[in-house]
Structure formats: structure tokens, C-alpha cells
Amino acid sequence: MAKSKPAKSKSPAPGKKTTGLNPVASTSRIDIGIAGSDRKEIAEGLSRYLSDAFTLYLKTHNFHWNVTGPMFNSLHNMFEAQYTEQWNALDEVAERTRALGFNTPGSYAEFIRLTSIREEQGADGVPDWKGMVQQLVSGNEAVCRTARAVLKTADEAGDDPTVDLLTQRLQTHEKYAWMLRSLLE
Predict the structure, then answer these.
(1) Which of 15, 18, 101, 111 could form a disulfide with 30 if both were Cys (CB 3.0 to 4.6 A apart)?
(2) pTM for this model (two decimals)
(3) How many domains are contained in the chain?
């Protein structure tokens, strides 16, 4: 188990999105063994992760509704299983951010600003089933990249609950990417 480090001041890397999180009133009284600046950096990372995960959830749900073609039944069912699991996981990520003492994004505008995944056009712009699968592979891989970056920050700060949460999410999204990628081979 990593020990917490003393408070440090960090500025975001050039080109790195910041979330502009507003600490909740009780933030200054939080003493869970993680420095306030580390908690803020982790919460900002979790907000980016949540935004990627929510965008992927929405894309997966969109494709579930709009898939057509010879793979309809299997993809319709696969997408449903994936978006249902993703939806349930979103709450855990948001609650972890709150436990660290920060508000969590909760609007489309915030998610769009923070996500690294391109949003779909909706009903008028859905690709064929192969395009859907390719986009979901890319989306799951993007979520993994974001999770890894936040996991590294959390690990360095000794934030084991966030490390555990993101490790579980990585296992899930790596598996989804593999399963979807296999359909294209």
C-alpha cells in the first residue's frame, strides 16, 4: 500500500484539458490520507474518465437501437449487455469523485467538453454494423487510455480505492474491445 505524499502544486500539462471542478464546501475538512492537491488531480482525471465512459455508454446505446444487417440479433444483444454494465459503472465513478470531495460533471455540455471520444450524429448518422463495431473498439480503447492515466496518478497518491475501481474498469473495457475487435477479423 502506497503512502500518501505531502501536498504538491501541479499545473496541467500543456494541451491537457482541465475540468474546472469546484470543491464542495467540506473539501477543506477532508483528511483521508490523500493530499488535497492529489485529490483534486485525481478527481479531475475521474471527471475525464467519466466523460469518456458516458460518451461510450451513449454511443453503445445508440448503436443498440440502430443496428441493422445480418449481425442484428447478436450485436443488438451484445450492445445491450455492454451499455447496461457501463451504465451501472458510471455511478461508482461519480461517487468516487464525490468521496474525494469534488463535484462530478453531469451535463451533456460538460461531458462533450471533457471527453476524448467523438460524439455520434444520432439517428441520421449511424454507420453500418462494421462501422459501429469499429467505433466501439476505438471508444473502449480510448476509455482504457484515460483510465490508465488516472490510475497512475491515483497510484502515486496512494489512492487505493480509485486504483481498484479503475483496474476493474480497465479489465472490462479491454475485454469489450477484444470481443468487438474479434468480430472484425
Answers:
(1) 101
(2) 0.84
(3) 1
